[in-house]
Amino acid sequence: ARARSSPTLDEVTMLALHGWGAPADPPLLLVHGLTESAAAWPDAVAGWSSRYHVLAVDLRGHGVSPRWDDNSLARAPQTIQEDLERVLLSLPEPPVVVAHSLGGLMSLRAGAARPDLVRALVLEDVARPTGHWAPAPWFVEHQERFLNAFADGGTAERERMRRETSWTESEIEAWAACKRQVDRRYIREGTYLGEADLVSAINRLRTPTLYLAPRRGEMAPDPSEVSNPLVRLVLLDGVGHCVRRDAPEAYHGLVDPFIEEVFAGTSR
Fold first, then answer.
1. Which tens digit of pLDDT belongs to each residue from 97-122?
2. Stated pTM of the model
3. By CB atoms within 10 Å of each CB, which of 73, 122, 176, 240 scores lowest?
4. Whether the Cβ atoms of residue 233 and residue 211 lie closer than 8 Å to each other
């Protein structure tokens, strides 16, 4: 992979942006999920950075980006979407946005609201909002217990993932390293996701979109409800919430040609 640049704080949003590859190459923007960071894409970055200018953002309260305050937390879903839109505005040209889970939901909304800022979307098991305006107590308890397991660096959790998954060592280590940088206040107070109608946002998109999700997952939209001809929804067997880690060959077999077609101008 090309050399990684030092993270910079975006001048407008103050979110941390990390970069790999040559700035003259076509741009990709990677947007991570809950409790992760820009560091959570090591294998994808290694494959893409020789062809693309890869940028990855630390969402607010993750990685080395700023923590949450009262005002931003009071409107957390809008805050994250607006943060992301400002990052997109700061880029010299619209990127292909590659996003997972929470990052996928916010990228989907940003793409629907500002299609001029997004060349195309690659969405991986988008977080499905429930419409509830406070995080469920069971969810907070689960996340707190999970994050507490990384107080020592996550030795036991890393060993568990080696036993239970087919993830590469680089992915396991990067996944674990993110956990100690999470702003717990967002977990406790801000993890509601806003508007519950995921399908209407999908059908409003005006940019080419590849949407990957596990067939047996709980968050994928019903294919019969996705009427947007620009959206290709692919449901995969034998994968969990993180498709690219569970089945990297299947993921890249779908995603890489899609990105190439977008930049070649043949995807529309």
1. 999 999 999 999 999 999 999 999 99
2. 0.94
3. 240
4. yes
